[in-house]
Amino acid sequence: YNCAQKRYMDFCSQYGLLALPADEDTLLLYIAYLNSCGLCAGTVRVYLSGIRPLHIEEGWGNPLEDKYRLSRALRALTITSEAPKQKLPITLDIMRMLQSVISSSYDGRVLWAAMTLAFFGCLRASEFCVKGSKFNTETDLNLADVQWYLEEKAMCVTIKRSKTDIQNKGFTLPISCSSSDVCALCSMHAMLTARYQLGLPAAPQDPVFVFTSGLPLTKSTFVTQTRLYLSSVVPNPSDYSGHSFRSGSATTAAMAGLGDWEIQLLGRWTSTAYLRYIRAPRALLLSFSKKLTRQVDLSTLTP
Question: Is the pTM of this model over 0.85?
Answer without folding.
Answer: no
